[in-house]
Amino acid sequence: MTLWALSAREAAAHIRTGSLTSVALVQECLDRINETDEGIGAWAHLDADAALAQAEAMDDLRRRGRPLGALHGVPVGIKDIFETKDMPTGLGSRVHAGRQGDADAALIEKLRSAGAIILGKTVTTPFAFASPAHTRNPHDPSRTPGGSSSGSAAGVAAGHMPLALGTQTGGSMIRPASFCGTYGYKPTRGLFSRRGCLQTSATLDQPGIFARSLDDLAILGDALTGYDAADPASIPRPVPRLEAGYAGIPPVEPLFAWIDMPYAEQFSPAMRDGMEEMISALGERVERIATPASFSNTIAHHATVHRYEFYHALHDDPGTQPGEIDDVMAGLLADGARITEGEYLIAHAYVEGAKAYFSNFFNDYDAIITPSALGEAPLLSEGTTGDPVCSLVWTFAGLPCLSLPWLTGEGGLPMGVQLVGSLEEDDRLFRTAAWLERHLDEPDEEKGDV
Q1: Does residue 113 carry a catalytic annotation?
Q2: Residues 6+ apart with CB under 8 A from 96
Q3: Is residue 121 among the annotated active site residues?
Q4: Partners of 54 in the beta sheet?
Q5: What is the pLDDT of residue 441?
Q6: Rounded CA gap, 447 and 47, in Å?
Q7: Distance of alpha carbon 14 from the chain centroid
Q8: What is the pLDDT of residue 447?
Q9: CB-CB contact of 172 with 165 (8 Å)
Q10: Of residues 22, 93, 131, 148, which has the active-site annotation?
């Protein structure tokens, strides 16, 4: 079998029974990286000897009959803004290249507890913001993989590892997943701890994950959840179990909402046609809704909160000083500096209003179905990682989102379908996504009236 192509669930199961060693799996992933990464550039830091030493330690635990974690021996890539005590965290900045912390981020601790192998650090755009990094899309090296979680999405898509961590403040999980053809998950804000992760926006920052299947997202997601008193946003109560959601059967067939978003005219023809075909396949299970008047304002409020908080968090950092950043970053910092505290507080007050609106909305719908991005990945020559607009409303409200790689663009490149769910009902979102995946795989004659 081709080891690097195994899902995380398959790999962990083989390791558990002894039919596969973690060393063999990690070595094949490293070989895959050596073969392909020159044309992709997904990795900021990779230490093969350290990864193999971790794998040998996990194999030794299995041989001695010790407890095995849900991800025992499975390699994971880490966006280069999560602190790790045994490898540098460069934040996508040349000023911070080689910077070594002395403690693991909360999610790194969770991964180690689950038996995962920390393969290395994946490339991020500088300070996880808008300026493109050097990573290229595995499907077409002339295209962007998206940002800011560029290397994590590209690495999973290229078969470097089955799982990776990223973050989203605007659209930095869902958009790269769409462009690279992976599954992506941004949980309810507060489900994953942000301790030890670069803070660019105290309000909006949310860790997320990439995988090559919905099932693997659920396994990794469950390994990462849990309350952390060190993160003010962390949810201090029992949280959804994603694997249970994924395996669950909806009591009734789900009902989806299609909202005519204010940016719908920007969808590429292939995205528009693909979504229409999906809506048609779902028939009466989709209701079309006019754009709420508040959505355009929500997009503007997101920009105000993001730029204001980014400026105040990082404008004194040595890596954001003149000469160290490009014109894109300089312009965004200048925008943040011009926003007054009063303007910021007005925009920030709408976060609770957005949460309240969607709390009522999901009384009637199981999920919103919407594009993950406007279309295919843009060309690198355009100097952008793509427009995050398809994620901004949901990120602002802290809603859980999935990107599902089910569409193809005009140039044959992947595009994602996004499902958006209710706060703290991530299990319900996974259950709905699994139902939809099964439904779309059914032959037409088996679907019946939906």
Answers
A1: no
A2: 89, 90, 319
A3: no
A4: none
A5: 87
A6: 49
A7: 26
A8: 53
A9: no
A10: 148
Cβ neighbours, 10 Å, residue 450: 12
**Sign of the alpha-carbon torsion through 48, 145, 166, 81:** positive
Active site residue 403: no
Token couple for 4: 């690097």
At 357-399, the pLDDT tens digits run 999 999 999 999 999 999 999 999 999 999 999 999 999 999 9
Q: What contacts 24+ positions apart, CB below 8 Å, involve 406-409?
A: 406/274, 406/278, 406/440, 407/270, 407/271, 407/274, 407/275, 407/278, 408/270, 408/274, 409/268, 409/270, 409/271, 409/375, 409/376
pLDDT-based confidence at 350, cuts 50/70/90? very high
| 83 Cα distance to chain centroid | 18
**Which residue in this structure is represented by tokens 């407890």?**
67
- For residues 323 and 293, the answer to whether their CB atoms sit within 8 Å is no
Contact 321, 223 (CB under 8 A): no
**Beta bridge pairs of residue 168:** 206
| Residue written as token pair 């490009």 | 326
- pTM to 2 decimals? 0.97
Active-site residue (options: 22, 79, 372, 403): 79
Show the tokens assigned to 181: 């053809």
42-93 tens-digit pLDDT: 999 999 999 999 999 999 999 999 999 999 999 999 999 999 999 999 999 9
Mean pLDDT for the chain?
A: 96
Distance CA 58, CA 60 (A): 5
pLDDT at 445 over 70: no
* Catalytic option among 93, 150, 152, 172: 172
Q: How far apart are CA 426 and CA 225, in angstroms?
A: 11
| Band of pLDDT at residue 449, cut at 50, 70 and 90 | very low
Question: What pLDDT is attached to residue 442?
Answer: 76
The candidate with the shortest Cα–Cα distance to 117, out of 185, 222, 21, is 21
